[in-house]
């Protein structure tokens, strides 16, 4: 029996050594391993493969997950989160059981530090940069969120937008991918009323891609939100010259003319919206045209 156990132990040891560190990480994640087990793995992994991007992605994923765990709690009254109603013998609600998301800043910082180090060793890995930025947004760290985006855009210009993605594979259609992703991040800033950060990012994008009508439209909108009407109007005019069939651009151009009391041009573009706009744009156009009668 002892001999059999010894053979099994040796075989398990050999199997463990033959697995990649990434495979071992995935197994530990599935098993729900604690921080101590993970730290031991990361320490060994870093000694053997210090430049492997999967090490830093794995460390980020583990500690980000630990930083954003959900805990179960009983509350005397319902909350916005989905909950189970706890009733007494008369079926009267007495408490509510549900999950509550927590955010641990210390663990979050550990997760971010993994990507800081990983990006230093793998600066062209755009997935690592975007993972870092996304996580900053979920913790409402919008100044850091914006700073990281600006640094990413500056580096993108430096490498002529030749990014790598997972498995170090070249990113396909990299410029359009980058533009679309940054537009989504702009929407995040807009929804969180981060007008100043949104304007910084819009100006940076326009400096890199000066003749993109969608980027121009976003920049013009950022100027409008910052009450810089004199800057917004020529931006929307340029966007319209590049994409005259875009009703969002037409809508913003019409509003800019209206706000600048250029009612002749405002009527012209609001009239176009009555014909080509969506329901909300048509409604706005009717209201503004009525005001200018």
From TrEMBL:
Keywords: Repeat, TPR repeat. SMART domains: TPR. The keyword Repeat applies. It comes from the Bacteria. Coiled coil: none annotated. TPR repeats lie at residues 213-246. SUPFAM superfamilies: TPR-like. This is Tetratricopeptide repeat protein. It comes from Flavobacterium hankyongi.
């Amino acid at each position: 029996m002892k001999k059999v156990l010894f053979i099994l132990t040796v075989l398990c040891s050999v199997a463990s050594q033959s697995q990649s560190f990434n495979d071992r990480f995935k197994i530990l994640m599935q098993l729900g391993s604690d921080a101590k087990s993970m730290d031991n793995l990361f320490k060994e992994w870093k000694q053997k493969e210090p430049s492997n991007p999967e090490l830093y992605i794995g460390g980020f994923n583990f500690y980000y997950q630990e930083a954003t765990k959900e805990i179960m709690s009983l509350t005397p009254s319902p909350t916005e989160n989905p909950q189970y109603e706890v009733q007494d013998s008369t079926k009267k609600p007495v408490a509510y059981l549900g999950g509550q998301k927590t955010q641990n800043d210390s663990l979050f910082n550990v997760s971010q530090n993994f990507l800081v180090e990983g990006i230093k060793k793998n600066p062209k890995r755009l997935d690592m940069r975007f993972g870092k930025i996304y996580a900053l947004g979920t913790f409402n760290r919008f100044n850091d969120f914006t700073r990281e985006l600006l640094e990413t855009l500056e580096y993108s210009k430096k490498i002529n937008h030749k990014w790598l993605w997972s498995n170090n594979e070249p990113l396909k259609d990299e410029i359009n991918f980058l533009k679309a992703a940054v537009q989504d991040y702009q929407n995040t800033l807009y929804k969180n009323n981060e007008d100043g950060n949104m304007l910084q990012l819009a100006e940076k994008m326009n400096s890199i891609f000066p003749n993109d009508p969608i980027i121009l439209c976003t920049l013009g909108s950022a100027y409008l939100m910052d009450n810089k009407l004199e800057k917004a109007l020529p931006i929307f005019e340029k966007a319209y010259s590049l994409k005259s069939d875009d009703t969002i651009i037409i809508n913003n151009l019409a509003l800019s003319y209206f706000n600048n009391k250029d009612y002749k041009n405002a009527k012209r573009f609001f009239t176009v919206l009555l014909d080509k706009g969506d329901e909300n744009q048509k409604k706005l156009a009717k209201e503004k045209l009525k005001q200018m009668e």
